[in-house]
Design a protein that fits this description.
The protein folds into two domains: 1-31; 32-62. It is 85% helix and 0% strand. It has helices at residues 5-30, 35-61.
Length: 62
Amino acid sequence: MSFDFSSVWGALTIIGPIILVIAIVWAMRNNRGTAREVQATEEATRRNYDEQEKADKAADEH
C-alpha cells in the first residue's frame, strides 16, 4: 500500500503561508504597548539622550 505525499505537500504549500500570516498578524497586534507604556518609553529615551549629551559635553571640556 503506497501513500501519495504529493497531495500532502500541496496542502502544506497552501496552508503553511496562511498559518504564517495569521501568526505574524497575531504577534503584531499583541506586541503593541499601551499609550502610557509608549509615553514612558519615549520619556526614558529622551532622558537617556540628554544624560549622554551632558556626559559627552563634560568629557569634551576636559
